[in-house]
Amino acid sequence: MGTASLKRCCLLFSSPISPFFAARYRRQLPAPDFSSLILASKRLKYPSFSRTVSSSPRASSSQSVFCGVANGTTPIPAETKPYPELYLFNTMTKEKELFRPRVPGRVGMYVCGVTTYDLSHIGHARVYVTFDVLYRFLKHQKYDVRYVRNFTDVDDKIIARANELGEDPLSLSSRYCDEFHSDMAYLHCLPPSVEPRVSNHMNQIIDMIKQILDNGCAYIIDGDVYFSVDKFPAYGRLSGRKLEDNRAGERVAVDSRKQNPADFALWKSAKDGEPYWESPWGPGRPGWHIECSAMSAAYLGHSFDIHGGGMDLVFPHHENEIAQSCAACSKSNIGYWVHNGFVTVNEEKMSKSLKNFFTIREVIELYHPLALRFFLIGTHYRSPINYSMTQLDIASDRLYYIYQTICDCEETLHQHHGNDLKDNLPQDTLQCIQKLHLDFENSMSDDLHTPVALASISEPLRIINDLLHTRKGRKQELRIESLSAMVKEIKNLLGILGLAPSNYSEVLQQLRERALRRVGLTEDELLLKIDERTTARKNKQYDKSDEIRKGLAAIGITLMDSHTGTTWKPTIPHDVHEHASAM
């Protein structure tokens, strides 16, 4: 395929404004501040929109790089689904777009995986929690999702680390693949449909490089194969970068042999002491970018629905993927490019290269993995999120409140197990559940607005606690029926967010254990302090009693007195609470 032909393949096709977009246009609300989400329940209202049946064409990227014919029509599913229309922000077009998969009812999604040479940090956690939420929500909307997430197990960083440790590179990367799986399990991320590894897909990679060479978009120098960016006129459309901005040495390797400093490696010739594979150009290994083009095509085809990853991958990785894929197949096209924002530390991006990162293991030593997950989805996925122990304290406290409410509710329901429950519910309970469902669905359909989705459960939780613990609530007609219906809906929605453990009581105990670990106390030591306070109260030493209570509250331990004795729960440390309230 010559240059002129490739230019024709990479034209940007414009489509008219979708009637779906006009129908659902509404004022865009900013993402709520995480602290105010936790400490003050702000009622955000979203209008309700129903999925409708239409013969309109699939809403497509108005400026997407499409290599082939112009966008045609894709049939809309015949059945009406009881969900709002899903909108996703497309990095290619820089706007939210109505989501329409290429094949009705089916979604193909590829997310770039980790390079396995070390433990994963919470920047990685944000990427994979984000796309796990998207995966879960698509499944909730009854889509059949094929989710592909790769492992980069052949890479310069892996080789360098293996050489440092005197370990075989493939053995080292395999070990860290296993560690990554453990981290994802801790964070309640569902396994993808397929997890291909570079080392197992050399044939597919070599075949794609051959096709790119045959189409005149790459060249060979001494066993190395480079992609020629000059042969791809649409280069830079995703990132918005101009070709002349891509200076050698800035995220592209310096090599005087290259025709253009921005050209990137498809195949690297073998070097002493490095793993290699045979190829038509001699022994070597693939460059970084080609692997995702080859493996996504192998499992999803050259055109599929969603390609995702962190914002740092927009350039050069995803920009180069587009160029390679289009050069290999003129019909290559991705419907939606989805990218999450950075995790920052002191306003700097968290990364291993900057050495300012915290591994997932380090964080979950002191905070429950589900508290970390709650923290990550407490900010909209495209916004930057600043890592701090203050925010993790707040997330942990909020999660404890949610799970304690559920446990208290389930204990009450268990006490009434076997009682005949009526089929009807009070009108205010029905309205509460309906509002919860609509608020949750509308916020999630609005580009996965998870902070608002989390806020939507605040009022139902308050009502449950009123029914459980207040005199008026205990006397309410159909109280048990209301509790049963509301807790069922809350648990269902928590499941969509990946926040529904198999045993809520067990997680509450684990939250308590980590709270004690953070303050350097054992439970026995805490119980001694409680006994000391109890003795002081009996002896009417109220100053000493208050001092013990306030001292524990300052470090995040709240004491609760009742006729049966004194119990405790973890809470936000006093200084953290004051700081968050002032925000």
TrEMBL record:
Subcellular location: Mitochondrion; Plastid, Chloroplast
Pfam families for this protein: DALR_2, tRNA-synt_1e
Keyword Ligase: yes
Protein keywords: Aminoacyl-tRNA synthetase, ATP-binding, Chloroplast, Ligase, Metal-binding, Mitochondrion, Nucleotide-binding, Plastid, Protein biosynthesis, Transit peptide, Zinc
Cofactor or coenzyme needed: Zn(2+)
S-adenosyl-L-methionine found in the keyword field: no
Family: Belongs to the class-I aminoacyl-tRNA synthetase family.
Function: Nuclear genome-encoded factor required for normal assembly of chloroplast polysomes.
Name of this protein: cysteine--tRNA ligase
Organism of provenance: Musa balbisiana (Banana)
